[in-house]
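Justification of resources, computational component.

The compute hours requested in this renewal are based largely on the per-chain cost of generating structure records like the one below. Each record pairs the submitted sequence with a full structure-token output. That output is archived, and it is also reused by downstream analysis tasks.
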Amino acid sequence: VAVKRMPNDWITKSPSEFKVRHPHASENPWSDLAMLRTLNQRACPFVCDLLGLFRDEDFTYVVTSLATEGDFFSFCRSRLLPRPGQAREAAVRPLAVQMFSAVRWLHARGVAHGDVSLENMVLTRDGSGTIALRLIDFGLSTVASQRRGRMGGKHVYLAPEAYCQRVFDQRAADAFSLGVVLCAASAKDYPWASAKRGACPNFGLYADRGFDAFVAQRAAPCGTRLVDLFSAPLAACLEGLLRVEPV
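The structure output for this chain reads:
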């Protein structure tokens, strides 16, 4: 099993009370647990099992099923995957299919994850040796289809519209984050540091000149340009996911 420890002063009557009492907390554990429990009740096949909550004088312990292979970020950085190129793309493909299926499952039931990232995907190996992908950390998830202004989440994965003070589609923002995940897993590097206008030259190139110009100029850490690393189907998938809305 996996055990997460939280201080007992995090226990509140509701997620909204937690935000009031802990305005600078990087997590929203009770929203996370509430959504995980709901997804377990609905037999979601793409999340870990919530096995129980336990408490002593100082801490509350959240027990879930164990992801034997760790998180997707560490997996992508390890030597378990080949160098960027055709072999790596082939190895990443079955995991990409699972992450697409996982997010589509949520969206079909009215849930936006809100923090899609390599770090929020974990891997577990079943008895046959097959690796299964699971989504974690639902602290920013919501059943609202739209949101106004800056949403939470990690800067490198956020869609550009998430930085603007206007209403945007949270499920489309999830799709953009999936594109960043797929690019990072395939190239072993993030496409940019931030999709906020003016914050990163790489995103500026992409936003101003388009996908083809971006992959033609952007090189992976191995020194090869992205256009020479990605197959045509992968490039088409990334171009669709990383669509920049007018901002």
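The radius of gyration is 19 Å. The chain has two domains: 2-64, 70-241.
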